[in-house]
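With this grant's support, we have paired protein sequences with backbone structure tokens. One protein thus recorded is set out beneath this paragraph:

_____
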Amino acid sequence: MTAPIPVEVLHLPHGEGLALPAYQTAHAAGLDLVAAVPQDQPLTLAAGTYALVPTGLAIALPPGFEAQVRPRSGLAAKHGVTVLNAPGTIDADYRGEILVALINHGANGFLVRRGERIAQMVIAAVTQAELVAVTALTTTARGSGGFGSTGR
């Protein structure tokens, strides 16, 4: 594991009182994000629908890092609820609220309550590529074999 990097976190007014994202175990890769919906107005996610769920947080990542918003395995396995654009990417220069696009693939409606853990956020280093236009690519044994070309 590498040394922790500092990430500034801003609680937005509707996120006040909610816990900051936290690692649930000593070796966890993701910090749990929670829903910042009003206490008296939980969000009902009907079967087959999606919604942007507020977290009440904005962050300032250092240059060279991104935050990935990923599903929580328990929500997916138990309820069919997952992150629609997984993984969602938060760039180092974004300063808006972290919103989670949740979709309900389950058969029943799902109630999102204030403070409920809805997704994971993984902070990762970013490498930017320099694309170089060429007239031909080097050859490989696989060549242009695509979907299923190396087996089932």
